[in-house]
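JOB MANIFEST
job_type = single_chain_structure
chain_count = 1
residues = 411
[input]
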Amino acid sequence: MEEASFKIFQSQVLLPFSLENGSIHAFLGPFEGQNKKKFGNTLLLEDSSTFPFIHSAEIDLSLFGDTTKIFRAFPPTKDRHLAWLTRVESSMHSIWVETGIFEFIQLAKFDLHFFDPQMLLSTIFFWNRETQAFEFPCGFMCPTLLDIAAITGLAPIGDRFYPDLFEEEISIKETSIFWDKKTYLAFINAHMGQPDTPVSTLEHIAFLMYWLSACVFCTPSLQVPKYYYILAQALHLKKKICLSKLLLASLYTCLDEASESLFRESGPHNLSGPLWLFQLWLNAIFEKKLSLSSSFTPACELEGACLTTLTSQKRSINNFAKYIDAILSFIEFSEDLAPFIRTTLIGPPWLRQNNQVGSISPDLTEMWFGFLSWDVIISGMRQKDVRIYPYQPQLFSRQFGLCQMKPLPLR
């Protein structure tokens, strides 16, 4: 490669190339010459405990027989929950639209608390905590910001949320939020306004705190923690927070914790975090392979709403073999593993009309730059809980409809 071209490719997001028949394709950059390529992780020591659990010599499936306690933190859908959501939406619809969270909040109207424990756990067997990726036979796989955008309607751009750096523009003392009633139902009863009364600033912030803890990040305590106040206040004030990157980093954290818990003698318990997002992503990639279907069509133009209807409610420990076999059958990358680069995609217009790499409107290039650019993403609402991860779309180029230089796992 000429030196001039090499320098250009080191700074480009997309690296175009053409075949003999004249068709144009692209790799996801930037490009590093083989003489400069560093294999392995130079920041973290090699640790066999980060290997996917599927490499364990023996797996005792009896540890996963009772899944009730394992997934107790999944978000609930109750009458009071829906009543409060409907009440606040009628007054705050325009704020949610302007902040970019309207479609995302609509997901809380559906059955996110239904899950397939065997599907989740069997896939977590393949999670590598060092690379933040699933090691399928065809190579690395993982939810990307494009997947999150399709499922939730969240854009990949916005301000990074740093805990403890956002100021309290509305003092928490002035809001008089009752912290002695933290459980979900008690919190709703304490802060939900009376019918035919306006939704106050206090009620809106309280609702957003409940939504973030119960329906987005799914705290293990099944309570509304005080530390969600700053983020809820920022959303109320229409701050352009990049929730998609915060959500993806939180998914990394909960997958790391879930994978690590598989090695315990007592097995995993009380898994928390946005595993509902993981469930919907799995529904999307397994829909055709496992013939997942539903006769119910949700009244919501969002991929995530449709995917909620595909979650199987038939739970059996014998399903582990079915799901493991399905994953092992992905010997070659197929369109099933890139479910959101199709012309029939539903969702917000900015994504639906620009979900093909070859036909992106110039004014939405920033969105795709967010999808395809390497970045550092952060999870955690408190400084002591902060974890930092690399967002590495180059490991998952094929999920964007691009070519991939090295699709095989690093090991």
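[summary]
The first helix runs from residue 3 to 9.
The beta strands are 14-18, 24-28, 127-128, 133-136, 139-141, 375-379, 387-391.
exit_status = 0
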